[in-house]
Each structure stands twice: as structure tokens, then as C-alpha cells.
Amino acid sequence: GSRQAVHCQGSRADVGVTSGGQSIIFRSKPQTMSAASVPRHIAVVMDGNGRWAQKRFLPRVAGHKQGVEAVRTLIRAGSERGVEALTVFAFSSENWQRPADEVSFLMDLFLRALREEVQKLHSNGVRFRVVGDVSAFPAETRLLIAEAEALTEANTRLCLNVAVNYGGRWDIEQAVAKAAAAGDASAFARWLSFAGQPDPDLFIRTGGERRVSNFMLWQLAYTELYFSDILWPDFDEAELARALAWYASRERRFGKTGEQVRELSATPG
Ligand code: IPE
Ligand code: IPE
Ligand code: MG
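# magnesium ion complex -> structure
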């Protein structure tokens, strides 16, 4: 189709300019009932890999390996259903505290994905981005990230943000520091890692825990929160369909009354 490459673009100046909770970078797209019922941006905490493996008497890292398959399913099924952006939490700033061998396995898995998956993502029209403090990574990893982002920059079918060495508090702190250095602390949100991208409409956390675990603290302000007991490696299209059906049944009010929201959606244009 002729869909515009709106989803992960937007200049930094777009940030904070919203109307009714919708980012202005989407204003050219008509909001039909069915379009509004599909989340444009889904943020996913992929939790439960270790428990998935332990249930099978496998080492925890076997769950991380299997979890990559579930990411592939999420990307394919999400884009087929019209989702425009996905952000997946792959490694948090707190996950460095795990045993050293698990941390190095996760780093290798990320490096391998950078080497082996990016071409496939590119040919499927996926724009790839890494969100997080990449300064902690070796030069080779940083180079692969930069190359992958440059290669896929013009793709418009789906935007995939992979959050690695990411933490919501880190993001706010680094944005405040940059804003202060630029002498413009009032507009700090322009320096957040997700600047220019719409806030997530739907948050999905697998693995049974009902918590945010330092993910996208600023951006989740009005996001619908969906929690599933499924362990991440078992996440499949049916579970995505359940999350999307639940999302479609929500009434998003953004501080207004239900009456106001229903009146607005009944008014054409
Ligand atoms: C989530 O699965 C993946 C990462 C945090 C990297 P976990 O490894 O946290 O799995 P559980 O929660 O221990 O089962
Ligand atoms: C959140 O999962 C981080 C990722 C999925 C990458 P955790 O397993 O680290 O979260 P907690 O420790 O249970 O809160
Ligand atoms: Mg966990």
C-alpha cells in the first residue's frame, strides 16, 4: 500500500505535542472505528523465559533461545494485524545483576540476532531500532547496531524497537542531563529515547507478574496494561489475538468522562 512512513519517524520537535493522547505524527491517518481498535504501538515485557526452561529441566538460557522464536511470531502476526510499532524489552539495566554466564549468553544472543536476523527484517520491510544505553556494548556491537538502523531506516511496514540495556529511569535521567546541557530543561522529553514515536497503546507482559519493572515509565502514562500468565517462549498468535481483543474492548478516556469520549467518537470527522 501507500502507507506513509509515520510510525518511527517524527522529528524530536514532535514530542509532547499531542491531542487527545494521539501523537501528532499520526494526524494524517483517518481514525475509523476499526483502525482505532488496533493498537498502533505495542510494548512487550517478554518475561518467563527462565521458568519456561526450568519447567523442562533445561538451563535458564534455553528459555532465552526459545524466546527468540516467540519474537518472530510477534513481529509476523503483529504486522499482519496492522500494528505499526513494537517495542520489546530484551535486557534491562538491572539484568546485569544476573549470573555472569546468563548475561554473556544474552549478549551473544543479541549479537547473533544482529548478524543473522537483520537482513530478514529488512526484506520484510521492518525498521529496526535499538533503544537503551549502547555505550556499555563493545565497539563491534555498536557498529552492527548503527549499520542495522541505517539499512532499515526507510522501511515502513513495521517499526521494531529492541530495548537493550534499557531502563525507564535511565532514559529519564539521560534526557534530563542532555536537556540541562542544552540549557532547555523544560523540554526534556525531546531527549528521551522514544522521542518522535507515539506512546504505546497496549502493554503486554507475559510470565504472570503484574509489574512494569522499569520499562517505558514516561511513555506508559495512558497505555492499556495487559498481563498474561503465559511464559514468553509459549507466546503465540492466539495469545496476541486475546490481547488485541481485550484492547479493543477498552474505553480510553485520557482524563475525560466516558460520555465525552462516546460523544466524540459518534461525531463524524
Ligand atoms: C525474561 O525472562 C527475559 C529477560 C529478562 C532477559 P526471565 O529470564 O526473566 O525469565 P523468568 O522471569 O526468570 O522466568
Ligand atoms: C523484565 O523482566 C526485563 C525484561 C523482560 C528484559 P525481569 O524478569 O528482569 O523483571 P523482574 O526482575 O521480575 O521485575
Ligand atoms: Mg523474569
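# post-check
The longest strand covers residues 158-166.
The beta strands are 18-19, 22-23, 41-45, 85-92, 126-131, 158-166, 202-205, 224-227.
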